[in-house]
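Reviewers of the previous submission asked for a worked example of the structure-prediction workflow described in the proposal, so we include one complete record here. The input consisted solely of the amino acid sequence. No template or homolog information was supplied to the procedure at any stage.
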Amino acid sequence: MFIVTRRATVLVPSGTPERPDLKHLYILLNDPSGKEKLVLIVSISTVYPDRYYDPTCLLWAGDHSFIRTKSFVMYSMARLETVKTLENGVAKRELVPKEPMSAEVFARICQGVLDSKRTPAGLKQFFKPIWDKYKSP
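From that input alone, the workflow returned the following structure tokens.
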């Protein structure tokens, strides 16, 4: 059973004509928030030497079982999803649940939301009070 909660991860279809079965790992960054029960999600992408990438939060093989090469958090593509959308995607097997992100790596990813110049301003505003609350003892 998939529970929409912070640190949960899912594979999301992101195929191209050349690679139709491609999926990206997404991390859920907060417990459902507000009347709409919104969750901020970010994707992980592979670092390629000939392409620009956001260096704010790099990930390595072993940071999660799905990550096998040097990767980065793509904050520019962060987005809000509803609990219903995520649950429906899993129920329809469009989204594939994976194991939760470790607490240490999760903390780096969350801090990167606020540190990255690529995170949309509205998403930073949404996430800052949530992250401040999580960081407090």
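Helices lie at 83-91, 103-115, 121-135. We consider this example representative of the routine output the project will generate in years two and three.
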